[in-house]
Amino acid sequence: MLLSILISVLIGVVPARKSLNVDLQAELRSEGKGHSQASGTAFTRSALVVSSVFFSVVLLIGAGLMIKSMKELIENNPGFRVDHTLSARFELPPTQFKSDESAYLLYKRVIDKARTLPGVEDAGLWAPGMPGSTTWAKLIVPEGRSLTAQEDKIKVYEHRVSPGMVRKMGIGVLLGRDFTEQDDAHRPLVAMVSRSAAEAIWPGQTPLGKRFWVGPPQSAWAEVVGVATDVDQRGRLVPMHDFRLDVYFPLFQMRSRNAAILLHLRGEGRQAASELNGIMQSIDPSIPFYDVETLEERRRDEEAGVRLNTILLIFFAAAALVLAVGGSIRSWSTRCASRALRSASAWRLARISRTSCAISCGRALYSWRSGWRRGSPARSVSRKRWRASCST
Q: Taking all residues of the chain, what is their mean pLDDT, rounded to a whole number?
């Protein structure tokens, strides 16, 4: 982009500035020496014109591709519900919630009170991140492999959700079941895996009933009870190849310090958004509560950077093309003006030469006539002057 604009300036501004400061004598000297230097300058100018137009067209093609990508980004379905879903984050102070039981009681109180808000259909919790923006990774080891061998460990992305939250978010359950109220701290650890994770960990096998080892701080075996569809949990701007290896755990079996509350609204839910902070303050004023937005607003924020880059690319591509075309016109006009100037200068020089020759011949003829009248010696000198002047 910068290269195209720089070349456009070089072929547009520089020749135009030179055309305002043309030296007649220098032009005449260059014309007398030959046109090799002028030809080299013209070739360089033409090369700059061609390269500038080429880079401008490349920028326009890139802008077109960006527009196409932007359209696909907007129309992309993340695989989970984003409409009429209000989200907010909160954190548990580590000094007040040291035990798992105290954290589970807080989770239950938050969900129960959030469901009573006006305009709220249902509520649930998602941890440690949020749908569409989760980057929390965990290493697991399928049963039957070495727990210590590094090559047997598989990197997955974890999600800890409240009961029934997978289905509530519109994520399909392909096999098995969603989490229930019975999946609590008093039961063995269970898990759900995405379809890509199931195919990567147990290729060609049914994952239901399979177990894998979860490292610290849980250090326990988890049994697969369901398989969910693949969704875009890392955002739409991240390549999805290895990022679809998702594993879901019950939040009431694996607590999280960071969590998000999700409210499914009947309408816009402005009143629910204003009262949600009051509910959290009534439960525990020491809990930080922040980042209140709908999932649709978060998707628009994600698109904002791409939209801005697309607009800037289109603007600079168009500006570069306009400068390139303008530079081409100015370069052509400068070349035509230089040729016209050299032609006029050559015509004036020829006219001056003919006039000088006529004057010299006249003077010689006058001298010859004067010498003829004076005598033969002077006549011979006048004849020599006449021949010399006419030979020039």
A: 77
